[in-house]
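Reopening: Ribosomal RNA large subunit methyltransferase G still failing for me.
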Amino acid sequence: MNDRMTTPWDGLALTRFPEDPRDRLRAWDAADEYLLGQLAESGTPLSGTVVVVGDRWGALTTALAAHHPVQITDSYLTREATRANLRRNGVPDGSVRLLTTQDPPPGRIDVLLVRVPKSLALLEDQLLRLAPAVHADTVVVGTGMVKEIHTSTLRLFERIIGPTRTSLARKKARLVFSAPDPAPRRDASPWPYRYTLPEDIGPVSGRTVVNHAGVFCADRLDIGTRFFLGHLPDVRGGARVVDLGCGNGVVGTAVALAEPDAEVVFVDESYQAVASAEATYRANADGKVEFRVGDGLEGFEPGSVDLVLNNPPFHSHQATTDATAWRMFTGAKRALRPGGELWVVGNRHLGYHVKLRRLFGNSRVVASDPKFVVLKAVKR
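Support: Ran it again with your exact input. Result attached.
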C-alpha cells in the first residue's frame, strides 16, 4: 500500500516492503505521528547525532531525513523499506546512516528516539548498548501504541537511562520521556543468552543454543520447533538445505549434525536471528554452511535447493497476516529443484495445507498433534 503520511513539516509517500498492491496495511501508525508531532510542538533541537531505533518501515527516519539521522534496526525488511521510502521522497543518498542491531552504535547520541519493540529483551539489549553514548543533555523519547507500553517497559527506561514518565494517550498511542541519569548504575547485558537443549530431541539433544535479544523463545525451546525436530526428513549427503526463518538455528543445526555432508543455509530477515543461528551452529557443528539476512529466498537461483524447512511467522509487528508465509512458500517453490521438498510446521488452525496445495498442487500431512501439524509439499 502506497499512501501519504502528513508530518509537521511535509507530506510523505510511504509503503511497506516488499511492495504489494494487495497489502492494505500502512507503513506508519499513530505512534509515529505522535512522536513527530511532539518533536515539532516542543521545538526539540534535532541537532548533533539523532538516532532512531526500531523504526517499523522507515517512516520516522524518512520524516527526519533533513537532520541526517542514524537508523538502527534488527529488520532487513525495515532497512529495505527505509531505503525505498527515502528514494520515493527524493532524499539524497548519504543523508541517512543505516545500521543494524549487530553494528557498533554511534559513540555520542544527542537525540535518541525509540520505537518500542514487541520484545522487551530487544529493548533492554538496545538501551544497554546505546546508554554509554547518551549524555546529560540527550533528548530521549520513546513511542508506541498503548498496548505496547507496559510498566516493565518504563522500568527498563528508568533503570538503564534515568527518570522516566509517560504522556497522555493520543489515538491509542503514548510517548515515553526519559531524563538521562548523569551517574547511572547499569547491570552488564545478559545477552546473548545460552541454554542447553533437552536430551530427547534427536541430533541436537543436549546441545548449546545461543540467542541474541529479540529472537523468538530466547530462554527455552519452543514447542513448535520441538515438534518439528521429532519429524525432520532424512537428508542425503551433498543436499542443499535451507533453514528458512531460521531463528536461533536449531533446526538447521540438527540437519548439519545428522548429515555432516549436507550444505545448510540459514536465512532470516532478523539480524539478531542470523547472528544467533551462526553462534548456535558454530558451538555445535562444522561443515558447509552459509548465513544470509534477507527476504526469504530472494536471491536464490531457481532450482538451486533440495530441501526447505520452514516454521513461518504469522505476525508482522502487531498485525496478524499470512503474507510472510505466502512469500516464503512461493520463494521455496521457485528455489527448489524438481522433486525438491518444502517441509512446514505450523499451528493446525492456520490452514497452511490449503496454501501449499494451491501453490504446489500437493500437500501431505507428515505428523500432527492437537496443536501442530508438519506438512510436506513436493515441487513437480
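The chain has two domains: 3-178, 193-378. If you still see a failure, please send the error message rather than a screenshot.
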